[in-house]
UniProtKB/TrEMBL annotation:
<dbReference type="InterPro" id="IPR027417">
    <property type="entry name" value="P-loop_NTPase"/>
</dbReference>
<keyword id="KW-0131">Cell cycle</keyword>
<dbReference type="GO" id="GO:0005829">
    <property type="term" value="C:cytosol"/>
</dbReference>
<feature type="domain" description="EngB-type G">
    <location>
        <begin position="45"/>
        <end position="218"/>
    </location>
</feature>
<keyword id="KW-0342">GTP-binding</keyword>
<keyword id="KW-0479">Metal-binding</keyword>
<dbReference type="GO" id="GO:0005525">
    <property type="term" value="F:GTP binding"/>
</dbReference>
<dbReference type="InterPro" id="IPR019987">
    <property type="entry name" value="GTP-bd_ribosome_bio_YsxC"/>
</dbReference>
<protein>
    <recommendedName>
        <fullName>Probable GTP-binding protein EngB</fullName>
    </recommendedName>
</protein>
<dbReference type="InterPro" id="IPR006073">
    <property type="entry name" value="GTP-bd"/>
</dbReference>
<keyword id="KW-0132">Cell division</keyword>
<keyword id="KW-0547">Nucleotide-binding</keyword>
<dbReference type="Pfam" id="PF01926">
    <property type="entry name" value="MMR_HSR1"/>
</dbReference>
<keyword id="KW-0717">Septation</keyword>
<dbReference type="InterPro" id="IPR030393">
    <property type="entry name" value="G_ENGB_dom"/>
</dbReference>
<dbReference type="GO" id="GO:0000917">
    <property type="term" value="P:division septum assembly"/>
</dbReference>
<dbReference type="GO" id="GO:0046872">
    <property type="term" value="F:metal ion binding"/>
</dbReference>
Length: 218
């Protein structure tokens, strides 16, 4: 039933695709640098994907789960703490990019404005960016701050795919209601990719699927 609705959940990858993606992420993954200005970006000589999400949506946990490293991306309990664009190398041909958390930023307004400007410039001007993954907390659905980042991605003509996080925290009886709310929200955005990914970093749900998606973006 779910697969026939708009913005269905991505089906699990075939075994060979899943294994190839597992091998990619089990290989060399390293923190490259934190960027605070556009001139600090590494050369756009390889495909990259970025992860965007509200503060405390579970972005660091998801990146750690994808790479199988417990502390590759540093999680913070302080919303808005990460104010850099953090670059990670995935093998020799890809970058994983962790964008600053948005919403509820515990930071002075000038700092917030500076990193919002950096985010806009990055999204608008990064030719090697293949896809943005917008993380939505499955317990709460799409919030106003999520709408803002999706509008920015629309304006920047960057394809984004919604990744629902913390799926293990939502009871089955509540999940369809949240999915309906998310589907209705993202249907308004022309840059939205037509499938969603449901994940749990804690339980490992959806991790292999998301790895396969990233591995397939050249």
């Amino acid at each position: 039933m779910t697969q026939q609705l708009p913005f269905p959940l991505v089906e699990e990858p075939e075994a060979d695709v899943r294994e190839a993606a597992r091998i990619l992420f089990a290989g060399e993954v390293e923190f490259l640098k934190g960027v605070v200005a556009m001139d600090g970006l590494p050369p756009d000589d390889r495909a990259e994907v970025c992860f965007a999400g509200r503060s405390n949506v579970g972005k660091s946990s998801l990146i750690n789960a994808l790479t199988g490293r417990k502390a590759l991306a540093r999680a913070s309990n302080t919303p808005g703490r990460t104010q850099e664009i953090n670059y990670f190398t995935l093998g020799a041909e890809r970058y994983l990019v962790d964008l600053p958390g948005y919403g509820f930023a515990n930071a002075p307004l000038p700092v917030v404005e500076k990193w919002q400007a950096l985010l806009k410039n990055y999204l608008a001007g990064r030719a090697s960016l293949r896809r943005a993954f917008v993380l939505i907390d499955f317990r709460h659905g799409v919030k106003a701050a999520d709408e803002e980042i999706m509008k920015l991605l629309d304006r920047s003509a960057v394809t984004f795919q919604v990744v629902l996080t913390k799926a293990d925290k939502v009871k089955d009886k509540d999940s369809e209601k949240v999915l309906a709310q998310v589907r209705a929200a993202i249907a308004k955005h022309p840059a939205a990719y037509p499938e969603m990914v449901l994940t749990s970093s804690e339980k490992g749900d959806g991790i292999a699927t998301l790895r396969a998606i990233i591995a397939g973006l050249d």
